[in-house]
């Protein structure tokens, strides 16, 4: 809907300019004024929506400044066609637009200067910078946000005044409008000059980096979660935040892209975002003994080069996809997997990861997943369809959406006895393949149509009073969450770093409120209503907990769902055959295998409706232990033990190196910079790019952030 509205606005705007020319040539003041109003409003709407069409217009030489300049030139043409070329209105309009454009140069330069001066070499959260570096308040957001658009729209007063003056044949309105435009433009520039002088952050990046090093020496972090990736990969980081908060050692999160700070979920763990490779490699991380990596990306090399800490690949999901046995993983000291399956997967793949370097730690993130107790008598079963995305290539086995998705949903919504269907697609669905995007839209339409039909069926009744109460509860919780998060919205990155200390009590309250929100959300809708669930909330695991079965593809979603003990089905989209499909994919050994026709769904539904007659129940329990490890000790305890064991190995290595330096004489002393913890170095090559990261692995699959 939004895309259609944006396209309509763009079409209206582009049609408005020929109408402006027509109004100028006729000449007709009403036609010109009407066309001008359309172009102003459409332009403003597209900018307010942040439409991609704005960028497209710039690529075809129809950018923002050009559009405003053309409108102003056509207004001058209108005055000439009205025989006002020798009138003061004409000279005033011409002079106004020349001066107005002259003001835009310093305005643009000042906005750039302010942003540059307030851009720090690093950005932080939960790090005390305020006592170490002077960071003044940010300029008001209204001054810098969409600044070019704001400046250009100041010509509205002059354009309106000139049109009124031309219609009334009196120069008073024209010069009044011109005065307003030029005065506001000059005031804007002078205001920017003030903020450029008094609201700058220290221009000495060394001072800020020294402040960070000072804080690091006081805090003495021991375990680092290192992450680099695009904005769409934030879920890979967010899934580890709660685990980091539960570590026994002092945690630190190191990010490489500034945009990740905006996408990262709230956390109490200190966060340092270091875009520059030189800055990272010269940062004092001498107390860190364990570095955890959630993704294989090119920028990992900037941390992997530090020998005084042990490096561990923890990944962002556990599945039978090739990304889970990436040969790059052999660069790490250890690879941590959930259970025995991960160890066997590397052995079978034979990609150079030694069995001795693999540690089974369980999956701490799976703690919120509830085990199945069967379908309650007072409600119908719920089946979750959580397909993965299309991937980076056109392999038909990547996702079921293309070949099987509609058959799966059509079979489920027509099931008798009826079931409820929840559809939660992977957040990347349709980002690469137009066919996948179209299939997703068709599946969504199927579910929405079935939901509307069920709502009109008298057999399905809603508890209006209870749902109204739940919706009121949702509104109350959302209001409180907004109040809790309202104080964290900062003017810019520097101010956010200065004031980015999380209030632990508010953080804990927000966590409780999000749990309450989830419970209220499901109470606010009928338990028989089909739903399409997108966005960050409800989370994937919340959908697990309200479902009695799941249909998915080969991805970490399946491995995670197995923790619930509930029946599940996996689609053999590549049509390998059930036996070969099981041989190639460990996670489907206790699953109902679906062909693209989805006719095998009857077996899944039978297991859901009659838990006692479920033929795969024992297989699922055995597979759960194989994939995810034992229930005891708890996964977070296993994880903490693994961190402590590896930290001891790092200490042993460092102590040995120090002894070797002490006893080794001059020959060893020559290599001090390679082995001492507090090393400083200048790299041969640096990658400092906030928007790109060089991937080494394909993104593993999780159906929701």
Number of strands: 14
Question: Helical region count?
Answer: 29
Gap between N and C termini, in Å? 24 Å
Shape: globular
Estimated structural class: alpha/beta
Strand order of the largest sheet: 1-4-3-2-5-6-7-8
Mean pLDDT across residues: 88
Helix content: 40-55%
Main sheet summary: 8 strands, mixed
Strand content: 5-15%
Poorly predicted regions are 669-705
Describe, in plain words, how this protein is organized in 3D.
The protein is α/β, with parallel strands linked by helices. The protein is 51% helix and 8% strand. It contains 29 helices and 14 strands. An 8-stranded mixed β-sheet has the order 1-4-3-2-5-6-7-8. A 6-stranded parallel β-sheet has the order 11-10-9-12-13-14, sandwiched between helices. Strand 3 (251-255), helix 13 and strand 4 (271-273) form a beta-alpha-beta unit. Helix 2 (29-48) runs antiparallel to helix 4, helix 5 runs antiparallel to helix 7 (147-153) and helix 5 (88-117) packs parallel to helix 9. The longest helix has 30 residues, at 88-117. The relative contact order is 0.11. Residues 669-705 have low confidence and may be disordered.
